[in-house]
Amino acid sequence: MSDTLGLLALVASWAVYAAIHSLLASHWVKGRLAARCPRCLSGYRLFYNLLALGLLSVPLWLTFGLPGEPLWQWQGALAWLANGLAVAALVGFVYSLRFYDGSGFLGLRQLREGHRELGEPEGLCISPLHRWVRHPWYTLGLVILWTRDMNAPLLVTALVITAYFALGSRLEERKLLAQYGEAYARYRAAVPGLLPRPWRRLSAARAAELERLARHPG
User: Fold this and answer.
1) DSSP letter, residue 121
2) Is 138 within 8 Å of 162 (Cβ atoms)?
3) Alpha helices of 97-203 — where are they, by DSSP H?
4) Cβ neighbour number for residue 140 with a 10 Å cutoff
5) CA 16, chain centre distance (Å)
């Protein structure tokens, strides 16, 4: 396979992954499933996560399997800075886990409790990282992605994932607006999506107020 064909195959594999991932996450698909097999919804999140994990194998295999000369490599102080940022992002991931319902995120809680709603079972949770950006996992992932040494396949993957995070976050927020209404609309107006801006940081008191509004919208 030529370098060009390999990169085109990589882009195509990420495009297929993104299309399937977004489609299966949509309320349209979940609504059709609910109409035909309501009890299937309890296992849908777990199925969705397992399928997404399996579908990742192709673009990741191409990303790390295709040949490519280095485009840039961090050296000296810049390497220390890049790796330090990546480690900080990993620490941020680990820290953020304490504020997530891991069982609900994986889909085990829905399966165990027979959850049959289109929305997520947990309420709106504005963690300390969510007070800086609306999608902290995406932000942390981008930090790790762009602090690596790059060759052509890795650069293509970085560009595609960045574009997908930007677009996917918008699609995800449509569902969050439908589920949490005015509370999420106010949160979205107050906090940036992916790039933190210190002057738009949400206070702990304001975050708690919006969480209460999501639970009791009346």
Assistant:
1) S
2) no
3) 102-106, 108-113, 136-146, 152-180, 182-190
4) 22
5) 17
Distances (CA, A) of 78 to 82, 92, 155, 180, 196: 6, 21, 18, 42, 22
Beta strand residue intervals within the chain, DSSP E: 70-72, 150-151
The mean per-residue pLDDT over the stretch 160-177 comes to 92
End-to-end CA distance of the chain: 60
Helix, strand, coil fractions of the chain, as percent rounded to 5: 75, 0, 25
Tell me the one-letter amino acid at 88.
A
Query: How would you class 64 by CB atoms within 10 Å of its CB: exposed for 0-12, middle for 13-18, buried for 19 or more?
Result: exposed
Residue-wise pLDDT for 89-131, tens only, equals: 999 999 999 888 777 777 778 877 777 676 665 678 899 999 9
DSSP state of 100: S
For 112, residues 6+ apart whose C-beta sits below 8 A from its C-beta are 103
CA distances, 92 to each of 11, 89, 137, 141, 166 (Å): 29, 5, 9, 10, 20
CA atoms within 13 A on the CB side of 79: 7
